Amino acid sequence: MAPAFNDPDQPPPDSAESDPVAHDAALIARARAGEERAFGELMQAHYPATFRLVVAILRHEHDARDVCQEVWLTVWKTLPTYRGESRFSTWLHPIATRRAIDHLRKRRRWFSRFLPFSTGPDDRLGVPEPPSAVDTPADFAAAERRAHFEKALAELPPLLRAALALREIEGQTYEQIARSLECPVGTVMSRLHKARHLLAKKLQSYRP
């Protein structure tokens, strides 16, 4: 049975150990023994970073929260496979990345299927509408540039989008991205090059 998750927006308890790695290990041991409270504390400690990672890839807060619930259900089911040979976050983040990429792929297939009937902003892969009210021409231009950027980013293939988000938004190293995407560092570099090229090309096409 899945645990009753605590509110992820609440901070972890003040009694957390000063050594986060040791504290994680203790919580994991208790969670493996079936203690749901320990798993809830583990989730509270790592949810913010997981959410930032997923939302960086999806660029949509509501979808990111849904995906994060899937991520933590997966963690609950597969926690016995965690051997403790690396930091818990090193094991966790690839799970979150894969779930986010799967979500992008599913949403892209849905979007492509119903593209001829698209009539509103809700059909645009989660790309937000630019603000309806702006104070100055500069505000309008900035809002328009951001909308163009979000649209271009949303149109990138999922794996390219994930690599770019992990690098430029999350600031991960090539090695960290390789672990998250489960591919060689050379593949990460190639995907980043393609992603930047495609993004620049799409942004160029938006210029008047």
Provide an overview of this structure.
By secondary structure, the chain is mainly α. The protein folds into two domains: 1-120, Rna Polymerase Sigma Factor, Chain: A (Orthogonal Bundle); 127-208, Orthogonal Bundle (Arc Repressor Mutant, subunit A), CATH 1.10.10.10. Helix content is 68%, strand content 0%. It has helices spanning 20-32, 36-58, 61-78, 88-114, 137-154, 158-169, 174-181, 185-206. Helix 2 (36-58) crosses helix 3 and helix 2 (36-58) crosses helix 6. The longest helix has 27 residues, at 88-114.
| Helical residue percent band | 55-70%
List the domain count as a whole number: 2
Structural class: mainly alpha
CATH topology of the largest domain: Rna Polymerase Sigma Factor, Chain: A
Low confidence ranges: 11-17, 110-133
Query: H/E element string?
Result: HHHHHHHH
Quickly count the helices.
Answer: 8
Mean pLDDT: 80
Task: Determine Rg (CA atoms, Å).
Answer: 19 Å
CATH superfamily of the largest domain: RNA polymerase sigma factor, region 2, helix turn helix motif
**How can the largest sheet be summarized?**
none
The CATH C-level class name of the largest domain: Mainly Alpha
How would you summarize this macromolecular structure in one to three sentences?
The protein has 208 residues and is an all-alpha fold. Helix content is 68%, strand content 0%.
Task: Using brief descriptors, characterize the structure shown.
8 helices, 208 residues, Rna Polymerase Sigma Factor, Chain: A, Arc Repressor Mutant, subunit A, mainly alpha
